[in-house]
Specification:
about 40% strand; Diaminopimelate Epimerase, Chain A, domain 1; 18-stranded mixed beta sheet
């Protein structure tokens, strides 16, 4: 019999299948090489593939790979990983999921309303001059630019500008960052959302990410300061779309959403 590992595809920040952001979650039984994990992520060809390795204390080592590179922080694949652990009863229903990552310890908690909330580090952006080529690549009026540890955050004039933007991805790929977040205050008569965003990361092998939890680590403090709120809902206006509930807690950010399993299978390793 061929050796295999469980691999599960989950739509994260989604209330139903085929929404939000798909991630693959691979459950390891022993450490694997970085080269092997990168090859699996390229095979899956999703924006992120997460690899979970259990520790003796019921916590997990967690790493994330795009089809092209390893990343230091990923929200939607962490949400997907937490969902898989509870769905497969690898954690008790009331247990906190604890992960050891390149961005330190991360946790996930199940809430009574079906949401999963992640505890992530805040990524406050510092106002910065627009690097050469950024504004031209976006092709929209830019009101403000900030630089976080990972990305550029760009404020556009309104929600319509965020939704219609078709950036020059080749130019964005030349910038010395993981990606570019574009955002604006939501124009929502029903008040369902506080802000909207999109995220482009061609340098990391993801032209446009459907819903980016880690980008909201920067969006949350940015909009919290402008709106005077500590709890908000952001909508990432990609073609799939998805909502992220954010809560500011000092130097941490809560990111909450739901997840749905869409595929469950075996990854053959020989």
């Amino acid at each position: 019999m061929r050796a295999s590992l469980p691999i599960i595809q989950v739509d994260a920040f989604a209330d139903a299948p085929f929404q939000g952001n798909p991630a693959a979650v691979c459950l390891l039984s022993e450490p694997k090489s970085e080269r092997w994990m990168q090859a699996v992520a390229a095979e899956m060809n999703l924006s992120e593939t997460a690899f979970l390795l259990p520790r003796s204390d019921a916590s997990f080592d967690l790493r994330w790979f795009t089809p092209a590179v390893e990343v230091a922080l990923c929200g939607h694949a962490t949400l997907a990983s937490s969902h898989v652990l509870w769905e497969r009863a690898l954690l008790g229903p009331e247990a906190i999921a604890r992960f050891h990552s390149k961005s330190g310890e991360l946790t996930a908690t199940r809430r009574g309303d079906g949401l999963i909330e992640l505890d992530f580090p805040s990524r406050v952006g510092t106002p910065a001059p627009a690097p050469e080529g950024l504004v031209d690549a976006l092709g929209q009026r830019v009101l403000h630019v900030a630089r976080s540890a990972d990305d550029y955050l760009v404020l556009l004039e309104n929600e319509a500008a965020v939704r219609r933007i078709q950036p020059d991805l080749a130019s964005l790929a030349k910038l010395p960052v993981r990606g570019v977040i574009v955002t604006a205050q939501a124009n929502d008569e029903k008040g369902a959302f506080d802000f909207v965003s999109r995220f482009f990361a061609p340098a990391a092998g993801v032209n446009e990410d459907p819903v980016t939890g880690s980008a909201h680590c920067c969006l949350a403090p940015f909009w919290g300061e402008r709106l005077g709120k500590t709890e908000m809902i952001g909508f990432q206006a990609s073609s799939r779309g998805g909502a992220v509930r954010v809560t500011l807690r000092g130097d941490r950010v809560g990111l909450a959403g739901r997840a749905v399993t869409v595929m469950d299978g075996n990854l053959y390793t020989d």
